[in-house]
Amino acid sequence: MTTPYLGNPKYTIEVLQKYGFVFQKRFGQNFLIDTHVLDRIISASEITKDDFVLEIGPGIGTMTQYLAEAAREVTAVEIDDALIPILKDTLKEWDNVTVLHGDILKTDICKIAEEKNQGRPIKVVANLPYYITTPIIMGLFESHVPVSSITVMVQKEVADRMQTGPGSKEYGALSLAVQYYAEPKIVANVPPNCFMPRPKVGSAVICLTRHQNPPVTTLDEKLMFRLIRASFNQRRKTLSNSLKNSQELPYSREEVEAAITECGLPLNIRGEALTLEQFARLSDCFVKLNK
Predict the structure, then answer these.
(1) What angle do CA 274, 280, 284 make, to 5 degrees?
(2) N or C, which terminus of the chain has less Cβ within 10 Å?
(3) Which has the closest alpha carbon to 71: 7, 25, 105, 117?
(4) 146 within 8 A of 121, measured Cβ to Cβ
(5) For 270, which DSSP code?
(6) In whole angstroms, how large is the CA radius of gyration of the chain?
(7) Neighbours of 43 (CB within 10 A)
């Protein structure tokens, strides 16, 4: 093998210098330079030679090399023009990798899954910049792309939010949305010195294993998520005030209070105290009251 593994910082620096690469703040670029963390990501995502993997934001190809060794085939989607020639170089020894130059939010992932994996569920692995974590993860879930798991490196605080339950200050709309679609599990905490350049905050690897069926059923999934968002938009307010004041919801104070009471909840409860199950029931109460 003539291409060196990029998990070693020395080789990462050599590649960056060779191409005169400049880090782009707008893409939130932080390249992983720790082989132990790379090994943890591969083992947490349980990738085998039967798997097709979609990698989001391969950077210079550090994790892509590891994925290519573990998986049957990898497609990596990279937005930064300057990284495309670098990826051609660093991945030239792997014939099971395709690099797509584009924005993941505008990429037809269902089409990729169909072409590369005959429509069977794919595995997604990514090192995501903080500002775009939520749209990418929710986009994958909400568009019903066939995904069996998403293993991502995110800001530690975001990973905590995805995994937490009612009553904690991290609990919010993201916690409920992720837990509706998947089982979240933090598999590694990653300090800033594992990246180049060093981010200002700690990161974590979280594995989201897609539920075969959501853990709760509701008559109107979209309404449930509108209620959830409204409940946390003004989290210091009571649930009834948050729902009544929401621009997204058409309900009067009387309707809001009737639905909350119908669910057996006190009128002074806050949204942050409700479980996913309780939000599903509340949504059903609104549906029934408006029939």
Answers:
(1) 125
(2) C
(3) 117
(4) yes
(5) B
(6) 21
(7) 13
pTM as predicted: 0.91
9-26 pLDDT tens trace: 888 889 888 988 887 766
The pLDDT tens digits of the residues spanning 151-169 come to: 999 999 999 999 999 989 9
CB of 208 closer than 8 Å to CB of 264: no
Phi-psi region of 28 (alpha: psi -120 to 50; beta: other; left: phi over 0): left
Phi, psi (degrees; rounded to nearest 5) at 217: -115, 145
Two structure tokens written together for 74: 């990898």
Distance CA 158, CA 242 (A): 23
What is the rounded distance in angstroms from the CA atom of residue 205 to the CA atom of residue 208?
A: 10
What tokens were used for 216? 């709760």
User: 3-state class of 46 per DSSP?
Assistant: coil
Structure tokens at 282: 């509340």
- 234 contacts 241 by C-beta, under 8 angstroms: yes
Crossing angle of helices 276-289 and 173-181, rounded to 10°: 90
Rounded Cα distance, 93 and 87, in Å:
11
Strands (DSSP E) contained in 67-128 are 73-78, 97-101, 122-127
Burial (Cβ within 10 Å: 0-12, 13-18, ≥19) of residue 249: middle
